[in-house]
Amino acid sequence: xxxxxNLYLDLVEGEFADLEVVAKASLAFAxxxxxxxxxxxxxxxxxxxxxxxxxxxxxLNSIIHFIRGQVADPVTRKIIVLGILxxxxxxxxxxxxxxxxxxxxxxxPSISEEDALRIAEKVQLILEKKVGAKPIQDVFKELxxxxxxxxxxxxxxxxxxxxxxxxxxxxxxxSGSDGDEIDAKETRTxxxxxxxxxxSPVLQNNHNKWRFLSKDGNIYAAIKDEKFLSDxxxxxxxxxxxxGIIILANVExxxxxxxxxxxxxxxxxxxxVDVRTSDNIDDLFSQK
Length: 288
Description:
This protein is of the alpha+beta class. The protein contains seven helices and ten strands. The strands form two sheets. The chain has a five-stranded antiparallel beta sheet with strand order 2-3-1-4-5. A hairpin with a 3-residue loop joins β2 (about 45-55) and β3 (about 60-70). α1 packs across α2 and α1 (about 20-40) packs antiparallel against α5. The longest helix has 22 residues, at about 20-40. The chain is globular. It starts with a strand and ends in a 12-residue tail after the last strand.
C-alpha cells in the first residue's frame, strides 16, 4: 500500500537548491512521517521513496510505502498524511480544524462528515502533543541555510504546488532556533523524544548502555528511568524478550562543538513514555 506525499520548495528564479541542504531536509521530513505513523498506528513500518523531482520550483515527489502492517482504514491514512500537512499549514487551532473538515468532505466522497471530524480531532492532537515537531523543526533549520529556497510546503499530488506555502521569513521561527546570536558554549544538553527499536538490553541494575535502532541508525543509550529499569529487571514490566519491541522515550542528548558543528557524545533515556510490541498497539492518544 502506498500514498503520494511531496515536499515542495519554492526557489529564486534561475537558481538551484543546494543538494546537501535538500538531502538533510528530506531525511528530517521522512523522520517526521515515521514518527507520526508510529503514534497513529505502531503496527506500521513506513518507508519514503523518492519517485522523481519536478524542474523549476523543486517538488520532491515521494511515495510512502507501508511495508509492514495494513492500513485498511482510510481514516488512518488520512490522519498520517494530514498530520504532516498540518505542520506546514498557515492556519492553526479551530481554523485548521474547520479547513480540514471542509476539504475532506469535498475532496473525498468516501469520507463521511463524522469521519472528517474524527480525523480533524486527531490532527489537532498531533499538533498539541507535538508529534513530529522535532524533525519538522530540522526541515526548516536545514532549508534556512540555502538562500535560493524562498518557501516550502507539502502536497499529495505529484508536482502540484501546495495551497499553503511557508515563506522563508518564517523558517527561523519554525526551526525552533533560540536566536541569531552564535552560541559560544563548547558543550550543550538538549532533550528529544525518540522512537527506538530495542536491539540489545542490559539486564543489570546499572547505567551500562543499551543498544537501539533509531532514525540516526544504531545508537547506545543508558537507561536513567529508574522505575522502568526496576520494572524491567523484576519482570513487572511484562515485556517479552523478542524482536520488534519499540520504545517511545524522552532522551537527554549531550553534544560538543567541533568545527562549528555539534557532535553527539552521549545519550541517556530519562523517561520511557511507552513500550509497544506487535501484540500491544493501543492508541497513544488514549493515555493521560
